[in-house]
Amino acid sequence: MYIAPLAALIEHFERLPGIGHKTAVRLSFSVLSATDEEAKSFADAILNAKSSIHYCSICQDLTDGDTCRICQSSKRDKSIICVVEGPKDVLAMEKTGEFNGLYHVLHGVISPMDGIGPEEIKAKELVARLTSDEVKEVIMATNLTVEGEATATYLARLIKPTGVKVTRIARGVPVGGDLEYVDEVTLTMALEGRREI
């Protein structure tokens, strides 16, 4: 239906997460209607990002230097490490403005069904960071899925012998949520995680 170069461009856009066929077609036609300079700039941005972005040598977040801006900051609390599944989770935590510690990005979760074990995530890099006496607490902020829970439990077992305190992010009823629509598991977690006001 499409000429070969256009079909290839559409196919590449479709490979991106969350991009369906119609959106891929729209994006492809948008690229075709761009000037040569705009198209080259777009292609250069992709190539530059791919070649210059890598993992921070400390926290495994994305950076274009040896260490990321968070690990370099002297204003961050180095006694607390928040463990997240991916770089997008760091951005989500940073948006809150409430966390001032450091991060550790696992780049996945343990999922035997998908052939992902502890060796495929950045678990050993996390444990290596705990050898200094500076770290006092590790917050498990993996997603509240079966895989996220299994990963948090596995890491907690690895960390406990070091004497570092391990905590888990709270779970419960979302802000603006009606109790009648909340599932039983979420309500149970909300009750278990209640605190005094």
Shape: globular
- Our estimate of the beta-strand percent is 5-15%
**Rg (CA only):** 21 Å
Overall structural domain count: 2
List keywords for this structure.
single chain; 197 residues; alpha/beta; Helicase, Ruva Protein, domain 3; Dna Topoisomerase Vi A Subunit, Chain: A, domain 2; four-stranded parallel β-sheet; two-stranded antiparallel sheet; 6 strands; globular
Description:
With 197 residues, the chain is α/β, with parallel strands linked by helices. The chain has 2 domains: 4-52, Helicase, Ruva Protein, domain 3, CATH 1.10.8; 55-168, Dna Topoisomerase Vi A Subunit, Chain: A, domain 2 (3-Layer(aba) Sandwich), CATH 3.40.1360. Helix content is 43%, strand content 13%. It contains 8 helices and 6 strands, in the order αααββαβαβαβαβα. The strands form 2 sheets. A 4-stranded parallel β-sheet has the order 4-3-5-6. The chain has a two-stranded antiparallel sheet with strand order 1-2. Strand 3, helix 5 and strand 4 (101-105) form a beta-alpha-beta unit. Helix 1 crosses helix 2. It is globular. The mean pLDDT is 91.
Provide a compact summary of the structure.
43% of the residues lie in helices and 13% in strands. By secondary structure, it is an alpha/beta fold.
List the SSEs and their pairings.
Elements: H1 4-14, H2 21-33, H3 36-52, E1 54-55, E2 62-63, H4 69-72, E3 77-84, H5 87-96, E4 101-105, H6 123-129, E5 137-140, H7 146-159, E6 165-168, H8 184-192
Parallel strand pairs: 3-4, 3-5, 5-6
Antiparallel strand pairs: 1-2
Helix pairs in contact: 1-2
